[in-house]
Amino acid sequence: MIISKSKIYNSKYFYYLVILVFFKPGILNYLGSLSNINSFFSILLTITSLIILFLYLLEKCTTKFMILLTLFLFSICFSTIYNGREYKNVIISMIYIFIFCLFSELGVRHNAKLYLESMFKALSILVIVNFILLLIYPNGLYQTEYYHNEFHFLATKNGFIAYILPTIVAGQICKKLKSSVSSKYITLVELISIITIFITGSSTSIVGLLMFILLIILLKKHTLGTFINYKSLFITYIFFSFGITVFRIQNIFSFFIETILNKSLNFTGRTDIWDVAIGMIKNAFIIGNGADFNTGILQIGNTYYYSHNMLLEILVIGGVVALSLFLIITYRVGKQLKLRQSSISYILVAGICSFFIMSITESYILANGFYLFLILSVNIKNFEKYIQKE
């Protein structure tokens, strides 16, 4: 090779490039004046994906996690093709998630500290730019045509958290490592992130962020580890996810939802969407109904929606086959976090479980940040030599 593998894995610029390509600001997809930049990003994404795939093939080995993830992503593609839906965009989306996970596994395997530092620095730039533009253009830079949502630099206000939570988690872990990133800079970015979320007024994001902070505090107390851990939190998530979407137990928490969050018990019409989702699940329980990541496949009137719940979304598009694979993947993640209890494992538990909590009313199947947490968790042993003694 003209450039050695060691030089690639020790180059922060390589990580910056790939991270920024995979966490591309969403506004590039909408503003016509930025179409040339968007096309450039698309070309970079294709090139970097081929390079990453080539680098991974050179490893001549894979992991059980990557095999399970591949099967999960493939099950969604298969269901989409089997049900006769437009499959090109779905396959491309699944491939890019797969490539991002390959990239993350390679980075953590060869230079975990540099990879994570680069992840934080790259995402922090995006978060800061988004914050500045949010203050200048509070009503957004573009209004989407289909759902008429205000679109900002990174995403709609509900979508900010998919960038912000990975930034905060990466920053928290950097503080625990022998990192070159300034603690003051990390704290500044965290403060900007928190302010951004509260400016948005997104109940889902606010709850997710507050739960992350609460879990960080609780999980740091080792005496609570017997009761509050990944396993108990995941079981609680499944209970509330199906309890709210199927059995509507939210009525019990009417005071918190209506008074504190100032939201209706139907979660802004989500209960109607969940009813349609449950009906579609019954009709295609085994392999699902296939996916459409442009508009969703749940029809209410003349409009199509996503399930606004990750477990329901997986069942809708991939059936019990996809859900089973997803549960096995999350089980293996929890197993690794339990085996490798360290000063960063509780940060990852808090991050993953915050995504779980938010996914009760949203779906993060396409969120690279969610898969980032899974990859970091199953490869947590690679961070141990960098952890500072407290």
Short characterization:
By secondary structure, this protein is mostly helical. Helix content is 65%, strand content 3%. The protein is built from 14 helices and 4 strands.
Radius of gyration: 20 Å
Shape: globular
Count up the domains.
1
Distance between the termini: 42 Å
Give average pLDDT, whole number: 90
Strand % is under 5%
**Pairing-aware structural class of the strands and helices?**
mainly alpha
Helix content: 55-70%
Features:
mainly alpha; 14 helices; two-stranded antiparallel ribbon; 390 residues; 4 strands; globular
Structural write-up:
The chain is globular and about 55 Å long. It has a two-stranded antiparallel ribbon with strand order 1-2. The chain is built from 14 helices and 4 strands. It is mainly alpha-helical and 390 residues long. The protein has one domain (5-386). α5 crosses α7 (183-200), α6 (161-176) packs antiparallel against α7 (183-200) and α13 (345-358) runs antiparallel to α14. 42% of the residues are buried.
Q: What's the arrangement of secondary structure elements?
A:
Layout lengths: L4 H5 L2 H11 L12 H25 L4 H19 L5 H49 L5 E2 L6 E2 L9 H16 L6 H18 L2 H18 L9 H16 L8 H7 L9 H14 L14 E3 L2 E3 L4 H30 L5 H14 L9 H11 L12
Antiparallel strand pairs: 1-2, 3-4
